[in-house]
Automatic annotation (TrEMBL):
UniProt family annotation: Belongs to the GOSR1 family.
Leader sequence residues: none
UniProt KW keywords: Golgi apparatus, Membrane, Protein transport, Transmembrane, Transmembrane helix, Transport
Membrane-topology annotation of the record: Single-pass type IV membrane protein
Protein name according to UniProt: Golgi SNAP receptor complex member 1
GO CC list: cis-Golgi network; Golgi medial cisterna; Golgi membrane; SNARE complex
Length: 160
């Protein structure tokens, strides 16, 4: 077209040629923009597909995750795993309860035996009362130290 316009001296033809070049340039720019957008979407889709493939439930269910049946199977598998974990927690709690009950009965038996021995032997009773006094004194000292620390922390916090 340029050869044809260069052979003629018509201003209308040169103006038409310029306009066609501008349109071609605009269309090329639009094509480049659409092509880059298409590439970006394709890469995004590929990333999402690879992520969903890794996120599937251990590969034990079929890959057709679009169906409602597949979604229900996934939900059922998740519920079964949760139920199994809750059963394990309940079993551990029951075992812990049994151990605590056994300890309570053991300490109760020890306490009753010490009371029986202390009532029969006055010297053992004297030793046990000294232990109780020492224990109560230690408890009082520990509570005083804890309250003093708390007061010092509050004073420090309020002084800031």
């Amino acid at each position: 077209m340029q050869v044809w316009v260069s052979s003629g001296t018509s201003d209308v033809l040169s103006h038409t040629l310029t306009r066609h070049k501008e349109i071609l340039h605009d269309l090329n720019q639009e094509f480049i923009r659409l092509r880059s957008s298409f590439k970006a979407r394709r890469e995004h889709e590929a990333l999402l597909q690879s992520f969903s493939a890794r996120d599937s439930v251990n590969g034990d269910l079929e890959k057709n995750s679009d169906s409602a049946e597949q979604a229900l199977l996934n939900e059922q598998a998740i519920l079964q795993r949760s139920t199994g974990q809750m059963d394990n927690v309940v079993l551990h709690a029951q075992a812990t309860l049994g151990a605590l009950v056994f300890q309570r009965s053991t300490f109760g038996n020890i306490s009753s035996k010490l009371t029986n021995v202390s009532s029969r032997l006055p010297s053992v009773n004297h030793v046990l009362s000294a232990i109780r006094r020492r224990k109560s004194m230690d408890t009082i000292i520990l509570s005083l130290v804890a309250s003093a620390c708390t007061i010092f922390i509050l004073l420090y916090w309020l002084s800031k």
